[in-house]
Amino acid sequence: MNDKYERYSRQMLFAPIGAAGQERLAQSRVLIVGMGALGTVLAGHLVRSGVGLVRFADRDYVELSNLQRQMLYDEEDARQGYPKAAAAERKLRAINSDVRLEPVVADVTAGNVERLLDGIDLVADGTDNFTTRFLLNDACFKKGIPFVYGGAVSSRGMSAIFVPGRTPCLRCLLEHEDGSAGQTCDTIGVISPVVDMVASYQAVEAIKYLVGASDAQRRSLVTMDVWRTYYYEMKFPAPRHDCPTCGLGQYPALQVDGRNTATTLCGRETVQIHERSSLDLAEWRDRLAPAAAVSLNPFLLRAQLPEGERLVLFSDGRVLVQGTDDVVRARTIYARYIGH
Fold first, then answer.
1. Catalytic: which of 140, 169, 172, 185?
2. What is the pTM for the complete model shown?
């Protein structure tokens, strides 16, 4: 108990949290989806603050270009090509061994999102696309779980917390945004200070909710540009009665099967194909070795193809085709090496 008091003493001296709030944090369970720039900062704050369980899911692995803004990773993670969830677990466990960590290396889809939300008190958005954000929004409002939204690109950021029964949902505010034509970090860049600011806004709203400080909860969408010194707060409107999510209870993002899809990862010359439920990586190493230069770690298999593209295989059945953003070309390569 003395060690725990010492660890959280400065946080407990903050009157709105105190000893009672610290105990509530210790009993709380949070899911972070996306362990890139926002997710790593969020995880650092929540793990250091003493949230009892932090589950986090990410489909990707660490690359050198991540290190400028994704705070939990280092050069060795990039050299090894570790999945972000696995690399994050190692760092976070060294930061706070009291917190229970549940890393999940997987794509979050309509097929698994509700299972990932089981037993969770709050969901934090660390993603980089609106398809997944609307999926999380719909799943959270279906299950009555708060959803802390955040986004950062260039020097701009946005953040809000959506609480079922108290606020509108993300779809009410951004109904027509699909992210497909929007600017992304991979097309126009991003600076790390705006990531820290957005994730910190997300983290403080999460902590307010978890300690029961509903009177301090922000009911607005904050936007900012840290380069141009701009800040704007848009008060929430009333929930829309015709909103498919919080008005009509239709939850459209949950009606889409997350498998049997090909998804272009914007700006990365990468297409993700998910047509199998699982892949035995050791078996596929042996299959691909005669035709490609392969390397295997405990989490993924990489194969450099003679055509110039690269395959990255995950045990959950996903395959990344890197070196092209043409879905037809990616499917051709997939069919040639992986089959149907």
1. 185
2. 0.84
- Three-state secondary structure of the chain: CHHHHHHHHHHHHCCCCHHHHHHHHHCCEEEEECCCHHHHHHHHHHHHHCCCEEEEEECCECCHHHCCCCCCCCHHHHHHCCEHHHHHHHHHHHHCCCCEEEEEECCCCCCCHHHHCCCCCEEEECCCCHHHHHHHHHHHHHHCCCEEEEEEEECEEEEEEECCCCCCCHHHHCCCCCCCCCCCHHHHCECHHHHHHHHHHHHHHHHHHHHCCHHHCCCEEEEEECCCCEEEEEECCCCCCCCCCCCCCCCHHHHCCCCCEEEEECCCCEEEEECCCCCCHHHHHHHHCCCCEEEECCCEEEEECCCCCEEEEECCCEEEEECCCCHHHHHHHHHHHCCC
| Topology match between the domains 2-255 and 261-337 | no
Instruction: Report the amino acid identity of residue 120.
Output: I
261-337 to CATH, choices 3.50.50.60, 3.30.300.30, 3.90.1150.10, 3.30.310.10: 3.30.310.10
Hey, what are 113's tokens?
A: 């999102």
User: Is 185 an active-site residue?
Assistant: yes
**Cα–Cα distance between 309 and 273 in angstroms, integer?**
14
Sequence spans of domains, the chain = 2-255, 261-337
The token pair that represents 288 in the structure block: 């691909």
Q: What is the CATH number of domain 2-255?
A: 3.40.50.720
Please report the pLDDT score of residue 336 as a whole number: 83
Alpha carbon of 193 to those of 169, 220, 287: distances in Å?
A: 27, 22, 45
The per-residue pLDDT for 140 is 98
pLDDT in tens, 93-110: 999 999 999 999 988 989
Sheet containing 293-296: give its strands across.
261-265, 270-274, 318-322, 310-314, 300-304, 293-296
Q: What is the mean pLDDT of residues 58-64?
A: 89
